């Protein structure tokens, strides 16, 4: 399996499941797929964070707003894998409840990843609403 195939497989499984769990109110899986090595950053649609502790805190805070993710899709526009680094550009489309109100949203998302101890981890995220 090529590095590209391995990375895309990870996006379709572990990454997608972590996002669904976050959008259902549980930040643990998202925190697990994020880098443990600084620099780590998020410029999010709802919260920003810098450093491992800062991004995990941001994830925990926004997870408290979400419940009942019914749909999640990551529409990949562009990506590349170069050794132990990768990036993606795309749209996250999801249906969830935010503070008790059902919502369907689309976010523009750019992320940077690095392979740590053989596993892909997110190192940076920038997201905003369309």
From TrEMBL:
One protein family per Pfam? DUF4440
Q: Which InterPro entries match?
A: DUF4440, NTF2-like_dom_sf
Instruction: Output the SUPFAM superfamilies linked to this UniProt entry.
Output: NTF2-like
Domain DUF4440 residues, every copy? 48-122
- Name of the protein described by the UniProt record: DUF4440 domain-containing protein
